[in-house]
Design a protein that fits this description.
Length: 233
Amino acid sequence: MKLVFLNVWGDEMRNELVPYIEEQAIDTDVFCFQEVTDNMKHFCASALTNYQEISDNKYISDGDSFPLSIFIKKGIELVSSGTLFADDMSVGLAIYAEIKIGENITYICNVHGRSRPSDKLDNTDRLRFSQGLVEFFNDKNVPVAIGGDFNLEFTTESVGVFSKYNYRNLIKEFNIITTRNHLVWDKYPNDKMCYSDYVFLNSKIELKSFVVEKNEVSDHLPMILQINDLFFS
């Protein structure tokens, strides 16, 4: 099974992004997109006609918004789906899908954490967001993949929470030096902005491959993983 996590940056790069999504759709089973504005959702849906869509959005008074979408290839059974933190106006948003292939269940969670404050460092709300995510899935004795744009620096306790619950941090494990590109560095030349995006896997998932593609289809880089369809570990 192939999964792609990507902050699509609204429709800023749609001329480059849509062909990339169409190319990836040849063998991708699940797309998890963040910052999927209404325009971009339309473009994604047009490119992914063979997929079923789960979406939600939350607006916060300070200007933060969290439009999220999961696209699941038709033929994969969608058992359930839901939204986390929808009513908590201090943190970001997450949506999840419980899917079934054969007799095997797994959860895919698509995350977008608060961008304010812009320092991407720990604070009470960010810690609570990470803790809430792991606690929600803690009693699920099945494979769980949690990924997306967390708006967190690599060394924060908010990232470390996942390791405490025995999740694999693929960004750390594969020595990924950045999940961003010059499109953001040119905009904010005084800010390194090397990290923001992560994928965490629980112990039930057998990982086959993981890569962060270096391209310019967004100001974030796509995170792509292949996991064992049978989910044996």
